[in-house]
Structures are given as structure tokens and as C-alpha cells.
Design goal:
The complex is a heterodimer of chains A (about 90) and B (about 240). Chain A is an all-alpha fold and about 90 residues long. Helices cover about 85% and strands about 0% of the residues of chain A. Chain A has a domain at about 30-90. Chain B has one domain (about 5-240). The chains are: A mainly alpha (about 90), B mainly alpha (about 240). The interface of A and B includes residues 30, 43, 44 and 70 of A.
């Protein structure tokens, strides 16, 4: 029994699409997006750390010590963030 | 006559002033464009999913393509457990995408170029993902802040670092979207201003830059919506499949 011509066409189209997707997956992501992603990861952690330090300083009245400590903790957290997302990208 | 490049980001009131206590909740141009994007999404996806013919019309094709795109994105990044959250991520992606794209129309207002809008979106995601994590794992979700194999002396420091790194998620998510949109639109306006001020003799170079930037901005508008949605998936994945 001859196949329905529409079905054969559909199958051909499907196989073409799956082939195209195979190539698509290998394409590397745009590097400017990657660079921007990593930089925001770093900066946001520093900002959050500093803000937490500022708030704690105001509540405990220990200016300027906690803001200093939390700034550096934020820097470390930012570096860890960058490290993790860079690791994720490599996988 | 060059206009201020930041003028396009101004929020102004449309219609009467509405006050809820001390909070001004008047309808602004920002709200107008949010409404326009939401209505456009509703219309397109309603029309697109009304008739399910085997040979799809263009609008049905668009609907189905975006459905498979988002569903593939979710299954690739967050696994099959994230299927129940499809509706949320789909609407989020479409809302950000439409807001970005409507911003590309001349004289339109770009909703996502304001940090308060993107930050509210990101904080809702952050709070929601945290609640999901606590519902799924109970207090075991706190293990996210305690990496395994750390000596006990370092533990207090590591926990603080992990908490800061966790809290920085909504900030980086919102800043990324807002900064991309705002920088791009400001740049386009600046180049547009150059075209006017250099006139017919020297204006051709900035004009060609403007044309190229418009293409780039459309790419960025799509890419940032995609990044916003995919990072939501990644955070959801952390909450659903706890591994550290």
C-alpha cells in the first residue's frame, strides 16, 4: 500500500529539522553575553554584601567595621559566583 | 537640536492621579506599555491556539514554535520535574520578550529599561523559588548553604558567603536585563542625535551605525528575555533537585 504523500513529506521535514538542530546545539553562545553575565554576577554579590554590612552596621551601631568585613565577604562570594557559572558554561 | 538621550526613559502620568494612601498608583506610560504587551500576548496566543489544523497558519506556527522552544528550554535546564512550572516560565518569557520588542518601536516606552520593574520580576522569582525549595525539601533546603567537605573552622565564613551569593541572584538577574535594555536604547538615541547634529554631510556614518544598532538591539531584546527565562529555570532546578 503506497504511503500517504503528506505523511512522507512530514517525515522528510521532521528529519531535516532534527538534523538542523544537531548543528545548532554545537554553536557557542555569544561571547558578549557571556562576558556581561559574568561581570554582573561579580558586581551584584559585592553590592549585596555591602548592603548587608551597611544594614547590620546601622542596627548594631558598629560603624564602619561590619561594612568593611561584608564588603570583602561579598567580593569572595562574587568570585565564587563567577567561578560557578564559568564551570557551568564549560559543561 | 539634540535632545536628551535619557528623556525616553521618563515615566509620566496618563489620565487622573490615583492615590492609595500615600502611594501613587496612577496609570503611567509604563503601565500602558505593560498592558499593551499583555494584551498582545493574550490576543496572539488565543488566536494561535484556537484552530489546530494539521497545516498550521502563520500565527499558529508562531504559537507552536514558542511553545516547543520554552518547553525544550525547561526540560534541558531544569529536567522533567519542572514541567508544572511551565505556565509561569512561559508567561514570564513572553512578557519580557514582548516588553523588550515593543520598546524597539520608535516612540514606544521600554518597560524593562527601569530597574524597579526588572527587580520586582526578579524578586518574585527569587521568593517563589525559595518557597518551592522549602516546600519540596523542608529544612533540608538549608543544605544549599552548607557545601559538603568543608572543615568546621571555615564553616561560618562559608555559610555567610553562600548566603550572600544566594541573595545576589535577584540583583544580578534584574541588573542584567535593565542594563542591557537601557544601555542599548541610550546608545541608539545618542547616535540618532549625531545624525541630526552632523547634518546631511557627516550624518551618514552615525546613520549606518544606527541601522546596525537597531539590528543588534532586536537580538539583545530576544537574548535578554531568553537569559532571564533560562536563569529562572536554573534557579528552579537548584530548588527542585538539591545537589551540592
Amino acid at each position: 500500500m503506497p504511503k500517504d504523500p503528506f505523511k512522507t513529506r512530514l517525515e522528510i521535514a521532521k528529519s531535516k529539522i532534527s538534523k538542523r538542530n544537531l548543528y545548532k546545539d554545537k554553536e557557542p553562545p555569544s561571547s558578549i553575553g557571556t562576558a556581561f553575565k559574568l561581570s554582573t554576577e561579580l558586581v551584584s554579590a559585592v553590592a549585596v554584601g555591602t548592603i548587608i554590612g551597611f544594614i547590620l552596621d546601622n542596627t548594631f551601631g558598629t560603624k564602619p567595621w561590619l561594612i568593611l568585613i561584608f564588603f570583602f565577604v561579598g567580593v569572595v562570594a562574587g568570585i565564587i559566583n563567577v567561578f560557578r557559572s564559568a564551570k557551568n558554561m564549560q559543561e | 537640536m539634540a535632545t536628551n538621550p535619557m528623556h525616553q526613559f521618563e515615566v509620566y502620568r496618563i489620565g487622573p492621579e490615583i492615590k492609595l494612601g500615600a502611594i501613587d498608583i496612577s496609570f503611567t506610560n509604563s503601565s500602558l506599555f505593560m498592558v499593551i504587551s499583555s494584551v498582545a500576548i493574550l490576543l496572539i496566543f488565543n488566536f494561535g491556539s484556537r484552530k489546530n489544523s494539521l497545516l498550521p497558519s502563520k500565527i499558529q506556527l508562531l504559537t507552536e514554535l514558542s511553545y516547543t522552544f520554552v518547553s525544550k528550554m525547561i526540560s534541558d535546564t531544569a529536567g522533567s520535574k519542572a514541567k508544572p512550572y511551565f505556565a509561569f516560565i512561559f508567561s514570564l518569557f513572553m512578557f519580557v520578550l514582548f516588553c523588550n520588542m515593543f520598546g524597539m518601536i520608535p516612540y514606544a516606552f521600554t518597560v524593562t529599561s527601569h530597574i524597579i520593574v526588572t527587580f520586582i520580576l526578579a524578586s518574585f522569582i527569587f521568593v517563589g523559588v525559595t518557597i518551592i525549595g522549602f516546600i519540596k525539601h523542608g529544612l533540608g533546603y538549608l543544605k544549599l548553604f552548607v557545601p559538603s567537605g568543608v572543615p568546621a573552622v571555615l564553616l561560618p565564613l562559608i555559610v555567610v558567603i553562600e548566603i550572600i551569593s544566594y541573595l545576589s541572584r535577584p540583583v544580578s538577574l534584574s541588573v542584567r536585563l535593565f542594563a542591557n535594555m537601557m544601555a542599548g536604547h541610550t546608545m541608539m538615541k545618542v547616535f540618532g542625535g549625531f545624525v541630526i547634529s552632523l547634518g546631511i554631510v557627516g550624518g551618514w556614518l552615525p546613520l549606518s551605525f544606527s541601522v546596525a544598532l537597531t539590528g543588534l538591539e532586536i537580538l539583545v531584546a530576544f537574548l535578554q528575555a531568553y537569559v532571564f527565562a533560562i536563569l529562572t529555570c536554573i534557579y528552579l532546578n537548584d530548588a527542585l533537585n538539591l545537589h551540592h
